[in-house]
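Continuing the batch. This is chain 6 of the set; chains 1 through 5 are on the previous pages. Same settings as before, nothing changed between runs. Recording input and output for traceability.
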Amino acid sequence: MSIFKDVKEDAVQNEELNAKDDLFTVVSEEEQDDVDLELLDSLMEDDSLVAPEEEEEPAEEEPEQSEAESQTAQTERPAEADPEGVTVITKGTTINGSIISDCSLDVMGTINGDIECLGKLTISGKVTGNAMAAEVYVNTDRLEGNITSEGSVKIGLGTVIIGDIVASSGVIAGAVKGEIDVKGPVVIDSTAIIKGNVKAKSVQMNNGAVLEGFCSLAYASVEIDNIFE
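Output for chain 6:
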């Protein structure tokens, strides 16, 4: 009986020890949780340990352009000529107003207004107004207006021009009443009649041409005044 009693007492003691160990473990885990929560709360409250939020830099606002400035910017953009394009004003067509073309222009009809062309301008119709182009060829009965060309100007036989001519080179076979200012050579054909002054780099005047005015070789490379000093 004593043996069974001792075994029973040992079992009771082991159960009590296991219960104490379980209680200690539970208490330790709860204490650990409390410590972790307290530590976490203290870290969250410490501002020095919190990463500073990045401040977004305000985007630079582009200065607003007024309508007048935007329109000016658009008009100041250089236009490029279309070398292959040709605009044709057919015979029987009448345009009252100015024309601007970024390609070559062939005028067979009637235009009452100025012409601005970035390509070659060919006039065989009737034009009343100034003409400006990269190259101008006029073969019509009458044109009233100034002619300005970045390249050459050709005035055909039987054409009457009432206005000034400015170009880099020129060939005149018709009649011109106005000032002629050419930075290069000028050929005045035998059928030409000019009433006005001619200023050029060189002048070739064929027999039979009529010139009523002064002829000045102002663009010549020779300093004429130095020769006579």
